[in-house]
Amino acid sequence: MIKDFIQGVLNYFEAIRLVSRLSLGRYFLYSGMIGLTIFFVMFVVVKSSYDSLSKVLDGVIPWDVSFMSTLTDILSVGFISVVFFIIFKHLVLIFTAPVMSILSEKVELEMANSNLDPYRNKSVIRELARGLRISTRNLIRELSITVFLFILGLFPVFAIGVGPLVFLVQSYYAGFGNYDFWAERHFDYRGTLDYMSGHKSKVTANGLIFLLMLSIPILGVIIAPPLATIAATVHGSEDIEPRDYLV
Question: Per the domain annotation, does 136 fall within a domain?
């Protein structure tokens, strides 16, 4: 598990090398334009909803009034920040998907052991349906787990462990999304779930680095999606056994 996690991190160094060798700079420009647009739109929406959430928490947390205001402010900021980041991350993955899929395929075709057929038949409708199904599943599951963990965090005995657990959950689903740009060419819906389940450590490592990069102001949305996509494709292309690809 630890070895796989470390390998998932090391794949990013190979990704950086491939950016230069394959002249992939234009993909970073697209990622940055989309990411910054999403961020500023969401920032305006979230800023307007902060006061409303504070009032709701004032009414549901049964603790002493003397520190209620400070507590609800902290919880409001924490909860909104996490939900903001989850939704922002998924929107970035969704709206950059068309170009990240092309980037992933380009990288895979350059891999020495790739037997991917660039002329294989593609079903756009099937790929869209599969992608929407996976994205919806992951968003619902991630939000559900995160809300559950925040509820646990209301109890002091669990509070200290909530932050790391939320970050690991986010990392896994972020890595899932990055790997899926590669997996969509090789697996159907069920096959993708099985693959991710069997490679949790590498997927989580990919997502962890992705989130750390994404949290860098401005620069993060430019570099995170392409590098994470390349890193996931490098691992997937080296890991997968030769097989008949989806047609």
Answer: yes
How would DSSP label each residue in 117-164?
Answer: -TT----HHHHHHHHHHHHHHHHHHHHHHHHHHHHHHTSHHHHHHHHH
d(CA 17, CA 108): 14
How far is the C-alpha of 128 from the C-alpha of 71, rounded, in Å?
A: 43
C-alpha–C-alpha distance, residues 120 and 10, integer Å: 31
Tokens standing for 173? 């689903």
pTM for the whole thing? Answer: 0.81
**Structure tokens that stand for 134 in this block:** 């996976």
Is residue 80 assigned to a domain? yes
State residue 165 phi and psi, 5-degree precision. -65, -40
Average pLDDT score, the chain: 81
CB 116 within 8 A of CB 233: no
For the beta carbon of residue 118, count every other beta carbon within 10 angstroms: 9
Residue-level length of the chain: 247
Residue type at 40 in one-letter notation: F
189 within a domain of the structure (yes/no): yes
Q: φ and ψ at 118, to 5 degrees?
A: -70, -15
Give domain status of residue 52, yes or no. Answer: yes
Count of domains forming the chain: 1
147-156: pLDDT as tens digits: 898 888 778 7
Question: What does the angle CA 136 – CA 167 – CA 54 come to, to the nearest 5 degrees?
Answer: 80
Q: Domain residues for 153?
A: 2-239
Report how many helices (DSSP H) and strands (DSSP E) the chain contains, helices first. 9, 0
How many whole angstroms separate alpha carbon 129 and alpha carbon 26?
28
SS3 234: helix
Q: Are 134 and 180 in contact (CB under 8 A)?
A: yes
